[in-house]
Amino acid sequence: MQLKQKHVLIVDHDPIFRNYLIQIFEKDGFYAHWSIVDSEMWELLRQREIDLVILDVELPLFTSGCTTQL
Fold this sequence. Notes:
The chain is α/β, with parallel strands linked by helices. 33% of the residues lie in helices and 20% in strands. The protein contains 2 helices and 3 strands. The chain has a 3-stranded parallel beta sheet, with helices on both faces. β1 (7-11), α1 (15-27) and β2 form a beta-alpha-beta unit. The termini are far apart.
């Protein structure tokens, strides 16, 4: 039986931290998606079946109240 690959969405504006998280999750078998703004995040959430979202809640580019919609 083949297991379905899990998808993680990493939303962070810091490229060093974001790439570090991508490496960790991909090493553990996840397919890592990433975004730095809320509009890209919502588009990915609509297009893909995301199993886990890692979100920097202090992102400077996020519109007001966007995290409450998650």
